[in-house]
Amino acid sequence: MSEIRHERIRGDGIFLHVARAGSGPPVILLHGFPENWRTWKHQIPALTAAGFAVLAPDLRGYNESDRPSQREAYHLKHLVADVAALVRATGRERAHVVGHDWGGILAWTFAGAHPELLDRLVILNAPHLDIYRRLARGPSRQLLRSWYVLLFRIPRLSEWALSARNFHLIRDLFRRQPFKPAFSDGETEAYIQALAKPGALTAALNWYRENAAPDAVHLARSARVDAPTLVIWGERDTSLGIELLDDLKRVAPRVRVHRITDASHWVQNEAPDEVNRVLIEFLSAR
Description:
Blueprint: E1 5-10, E2 15-21, E3 26-30, H1 43-49, E4 53-57, H2 76-89, E5 95-100, H3 102-113, E6 118-124, H4 129-135, H5 141-145, H6 147-152, H7 157-175, H8 185-195, H9 200-210, H10 214-221, E7 229-234, H11 248-251, E8 255-260, H12 267-270, H13 272-284
Parallel strand pairs: 3-4, 3-5, 5-6, 6-7, 7-8
Antiparallel strand pairs: 1-2, 2-4
């Protein structure tokens, strides 16, 4: 990690803080909620050792990246444009894109919007929104698992709930949700400190609020991916069921799925060796 260079790269009207390392074919790593670029601590050295150049941004609103105050600034069209700017900043025509959680939803959407900028796509425990919306419609197991999404869309109430008792609910995500220990107390504290910055928690929640709009939902649901695609899935995810893997070939005909039975939602932190092996094999294949 000592070889990482920290840069600011212009996105869609804002600047993104980016951790950059290595040289070779570019790989862009997109984190989810409520993390930042540090969630890829196991993948960055493995990828650079395998001959890749890595860009791991703090996505807009997070940690050291710019934090627009307007909710509409977090619409998927702006998030996708940020990723397109990162690809162009590599100096290459295309890049591999890897996304987890919200970063995975963004990666699915980017792949559909900019196939000309994408080499290969990797998704970690993040649904394609078309499949997710179908399964979460009406009374369903996935709808029950997604109760928190409804909470996160309520302004002020969700900020209060998540920050109460020194961010107890967020700490619980990192301490109790993983199937196996994945985050040290120091790492958890670093994530909390980033979320405690003025406006940071609201910015992160605005991803949920703004992208419930019909045009944002349509943008994500309509994404189709022709590029080679790998989905890595921790099967013990309590928020996203394995039924979200069904019918993936309809939206990504060249997809293959790698399931990890003893990992949960935080799969890249719980099973880093297996994730790194499968990830590097896939990105290195001709």
